[in-house]
Design a protein that fits this description.
Layout lengths: L1 H15 L8 E8 L6 E6 L5 E6 L3 E6 L10 E4 L6 E6 L5 E6 L4 E5 L4 E4 L11 E6 L6 E5 L4 E5 L3 E4 L9 E6 L6 E5 L4 E4 L5 E3 L8 E5 L7 E6 L3 E6 L9 E2 L3 E2 L6 E7 L5 E6 L2 E6 L4 E6 L1 H7 L1 H4 L3 E8 L2 E6 L3 E7 L2 H30 L2 H18 L1
Antiparallel strand pairs: 1-29, 2-3, 3-4, 4-5, 6-7, 7-8, 8-9, 10-11, 11-12, 12-13, 14-15, 15-16, 16-17, 18-19, 19-20, 20-21, 20-22, 23-24, 24-25, 25-26, 27-28, 28-29
Helix pairs in contact: 1-4
Length: 392
Amino acid sequence: MRRLLAVALVALFVFAVPAAAAPAVVLSDGGAIEAPGALLGIDVRPGGAAVLLVGEDGWAHRIDGVQPDRRDLDIELGTGRNVDINAVDWHPGGATALMVGDAGVLLRYVGDTHAITNANGSNLLMGRDLIDVAWRPGADVAYIASQDGGLWRFAEGTGPVMLEDGLETEDIVDLECHRSANVCVVATSQDGLAVIGRSHEVTWLTGTSTTTWSGITCADPTLNECTAFGLGLSTMTIMLDTETAARSATGPLRNLKSIGSEMGGASVAAGGTTLVHISPLGLIRHDPVADEAYEHLGPDQAVAFDAQIAGRSILGVWESDVGTGWFLTTDGDLVGMVPDTSDQQSTVLETVAGIAVAVALIGSIIGLIFMNSPKLQAAYIRRRNARRSRQR
């Protein structure tokens, strides 16, 4: 009898506990942002109220960060340039931003007036194709990278100053700064990873040149680390020494996924996580604190939503909460994301149904035990007769 009761309790537990599953999202069409060519760069204003976009042929644009699907809130920005603008980065204070592009374009955007002017000392960069820019969180210095491997520090008072110990490489692909420490990381496609310390010194990280890197994020400001992403969805943790950057180290090379996808970029997302852009179009969420990754948006789901959009590349992603946000393709397609709650509702119904089945199962087992136990039947009859005698 005890064995049968134990089986019943196990059955109750099995039916009542649902299996864990990765979160899913529901997509919605946010319209298209028209541009003369491909969109090349994106950055979200601190606080999320606005998003700056730059692209081919000197194009620059501002959209609302909370309601990006409202075209009446768009602001077309005139740069006066006809060369590609490759990257944009908001100042940590959120009042201005820097834009960089081909032929030494270095522009300053003012958020209140939407004015765009040449940044101080921009003439010093003429002839260099600038591909990335990143402010460090101290708000005193931004770093600028060129296609031919040049690195500069920039401040409004001094303009651009080339770093003495630059990378001497021609394959810089990303430049990111930690969100709370004045240390930055540079990724190259062939020569590995390097860190830029508080005093602007550049140090190569040993053992990182064997992987083709394509992006970096420093998603969680509470961790003294950044994450590099590379070919085959490989990933490596960069453990930063915020006092002496030259002492920074790296963790082991790992892989986020084993399927035939490749990384196309990465965006800092909500909750100190990263959303890795993959091709075919999809997203993988990487959580550096929990040291785990899972599929946030699968290529099959993208195809089911819109086959044309699924064939394009993601430019950037931003979220107001985990699972709630937007992504934009390099062709200007804007797509909304919200968590899919249908699975959660199904899980609740399945759990209730499981408990009901388990209770019925226990009742059946107890009934079988009673029917097959003369002792229990005799005891029941004695107790029933005693109760009737007291009622007389």
